[in-house]
């Protein structure tokens, strides 16, 4: 995938309509709405996800973050939440991406790859032809209580850059991004988009001064 000069920004863990509008006002082009997860921040009810998704203007992408590994469950969950994008945070083990596409035409599918070893590269290359984008994060699916996002940890950006170079779909970079490291991340990985949660929050709430600094760093870069 070609380098993107100005990466799109997805603000994740949106917890209210007020947070949604704050993120959009500062420059977010996508919002992450987190449904039930085994661990991590930002989980809200499906009713609230549907309410926020219904109020966000069309140019803004609304991502339903799901921990389900079953295509039919994901389809049913999306029909309740009505976002324009589905972010699959774990490996799809039952059903297929094609099942989801057939049932939900026009809905984008983003698959999360948790970057750990060279195997992550192989996983991304295998899955990329079937999805609209790949999101590289720093979770750990092998723990007793899975980490599927929101860890606040940086992974190996050299491996992320390698993955980006080999794929023909857009790449989002997540994991430990904040106003202090975003310029370096963009230079090193050159992703299509950036995805962050904790890096622009204080005490779990969106912090406008951090949002301002984050977007300023992108502009300065």
Describe it for me?
With 221 residues, the protein is of the alpha/beta class. The protein has a single domain (8-220), classed as Alpha-Beta Barrel (TIM Barrel), CATH 3.20.20.70. The protein is built from eight helices and ten strands. It has an eight-stranded parallel barrel, surrounded by five helices. Strands 9-10 form a two-stranded antiparallel sheet. It is globular. Keywords: Amino-acid biosynthesis, Aromatic amino acid biosynthesis, Isomerase, Tryptophan biosynthesis. It is an enzyme of class 5 (isomerase). Pfam families: PRAI. Belongs to the TrpF family.
Give me the secondary-structure topology:
Layout: E1 8-11, H1 17-26, E2 30-34, H2 46-55, E3 61-66, H3 71-81, E4 85-88, H4 97-103, E5 108-114, H5 118-127, E6 133-137, H6 157-166, E7 171-174, H7 182-189, E8 193-196, E9 201-202, E10 205-206, H8 208-220
Parallel strand pairs: 1-2, 1-8, 2-3, 3-4, 4-5, 5-6, 6-7, 7-8
Antiparallel strand pairs: 9-10
């Amino acid at each position: 995938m070609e380098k993107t000069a100005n990466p799109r920004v997805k603000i994740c863990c949106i917890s209210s309509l007020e947070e949604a509008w704050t993120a959009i006002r500062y420059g977010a082009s996508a919002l992450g709405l987190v449904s039930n997860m085994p661990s991590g921040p930002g989980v809200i009810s499906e009713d609230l996800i549907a309410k926020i998704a219904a109020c966000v203007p069309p140019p803004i992408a609304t991502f339903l973050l799901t921990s389900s590994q079953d295509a039919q469950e994901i389809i049913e969950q999306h029909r309740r939440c009505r976002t324009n994008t589905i972010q699959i945070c774990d490996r799809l083990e039952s059903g297929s991406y094609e099942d989801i596409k057939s049932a939900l035409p026009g809905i984008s599918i983003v698959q999360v790859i948790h970057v750990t070893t060279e195997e992550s590269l192989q996983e991304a290359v295998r899955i990329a032809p079937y999805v609209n984008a790949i999101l590289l994060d720093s979770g750990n699916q092998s723990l007793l209580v899975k980490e599927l996002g929101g860890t606040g940890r940086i992974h190996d950006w050299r491996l992320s850059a390698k993955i980006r170079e080999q794929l023909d779909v857009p790449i989002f970079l997540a994991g430990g991004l904040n106003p202090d490291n975003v310029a370096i991340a963009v230079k090193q990985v050159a992703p299509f988009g950036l995805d962050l949660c904790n890096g622009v929050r204080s005490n779990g709430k969106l912090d406008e001064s951090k949002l301002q600094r984050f977007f300023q760093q992108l502009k300065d870069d």
